[in-house]
Amino acid sequence: YQRRVHGVIGGGPGGYVASIKAAQLGLKTACIEKRGALGGTCLNVGCIPSKALLNISHKYEDSIKHFKDLGIEMDTPPKINFDQMMKKKGEVVSGLTKGIEGLFAKNKVEYIKAHGSFLDKNTIKCDQNEGGERIITATNIIIATGSEPAPFPGIPYDEEIFVSSTGGLALKKIPKKMIVIGAGYIGLELGSVFARLGTDVTVVEYADRVVPAMDGEIAAQFQKMLQKQGLKINLKTKVISGKVVNGQAELTIEPKAGGQQTTITADVCLIATGRKPFTDKLGAKEIGVQLDKMGRVQINEIFQSTVDNIYAIGDVVAGPMLAHKAEEEGIVCVEIIKGHDAHINYNNIPGVVYTHPEVAAVGRTEEQLKEEGIEYSKGVFPFMANSRARANVDNEGMVKVLADKKTRRILGIHIMGPNAGEIIAEGVLGMEYGASPENIGKVCHAHPTLSEALKEACLAAHHKAIHF
To answer: What is the Cα–Cα distance from 286 to 284, expressed in whole angstroms?
Structure first.
């Protein structure tokens, strides 16, 4: 038996960050992770590898579509070496996972490569990857076991023809045709990667618009932009069944409202319809940790489960399944365990779709404000009127700022445009401290920068923009 003050099951963004923070606050900490590499879904088979492929495919598309217009000429057109592209993605992932191991060593976190499961509220059995078993006891334990792709009714993943995001990031060759089920973040990002590489991509979505939770005005612009880039998007469409026929994916679909069924085929079908909490063989229920009907660990406002010394964070609890949400929860949870005052403002967690242009949002949408009966002012500024975006010949999209008419506080910021995911951070910071549009609009922004578009949208929400 080995005694630990603090145990963390799961080495993803929530778990590894919580482990480092616990060690920094003086707790003797062990992090148990079965994958054999730290960083969880995000780093290994999610956010990071997808961003590597999005970056490479964007550079490729730029070279074949835009270089000539910019005065860059090549004797032979560029070609994609898909094997090298995937190798580079692997190098990025490997470098970052090793980096986290280095941070564990620096902060004296013990890293146990094993599947962890509860024997009782203070004891974890570690079935080690290299064989053998270890028993760890801990005063407090954090469950940070993350999520996995949710199964689609009637269509099992084979990770070659019917693939989850994991299989989609590990394809052996560029498919000629791809069907994407689900027009959310994951489906549109991976769909964009392969569309840029020449794949004929068809997106099938049950809802009446892409990324249903997105602000409606932005979503409409976003959909037009995706269609302009070559994605075929079928909204209000229901998938009836899917099977492999002659080595291809065959889907039967019909209109959501009912009507004639049609069959579509492709080399690969990416199923991107969401994720579910991962608590497989954890043994949490057996020791009294309650799960809700979706399999999430039930927690109170201080991340405590129904067993008082067991806490839970990240994708395995309620809320958006985002790496940065898990990280913040990891830090706050550990600070609370140590007796510090800490909290998270769940109304102020940004979300980003890393297509090109990117879409980023924080706070409420215009539809939510109307539904809640809140009187609001609105400021919009197009990137077409931003000098840096024009100089970069990359000026699709807009910034939209929504503020409470009475209190003047900013309630929502929605951006579609170049570097939207970076620009949103200023808005998140402003909203965290209760900023009004005037507060941001009257701060000097360097010129020429893309961030001036946020300043101008804030000026528009306050009174009037200068450059539009």
So the answer is: 5
Peptide bond connecting 151 to the previous residue in cis, omega within 30 degrees of 0: no
Q: Tell me: the pLDDT tens digits for 345-364?
A: 999 999 999 999 999 999 99
Helices 47-65, 82-107: inter-axial angle, 10-degree rounding: 140
Q: Write down the pLDDT at residue 1.
A: 64
- Model-level pTM? 0.97
Write down the residue that tokens 């000098």 correspond to.
387
**Strand arrangement of the beta sheet that strand 262-266 belongs to:** 237-245, 248-255, 262-266
- Residues belonging to the active site: 447
262 within 8 A of 254, measured Cβ to Cβ: yes
| Interval 181-235: pLDDT, tens | 999 999 999 999 999 999 999 999 999 999 999 999 999 999 999 999 999 999 9
Contacts of residue 335, defined as CB under 8 A and 6 or more positions apart, other chains included, come to 21, 25, 341, 342
Q: What does the alpha-carbon distance between residue 101 and residue 260 come to, in Å, rounded to a whole number?
A: 54
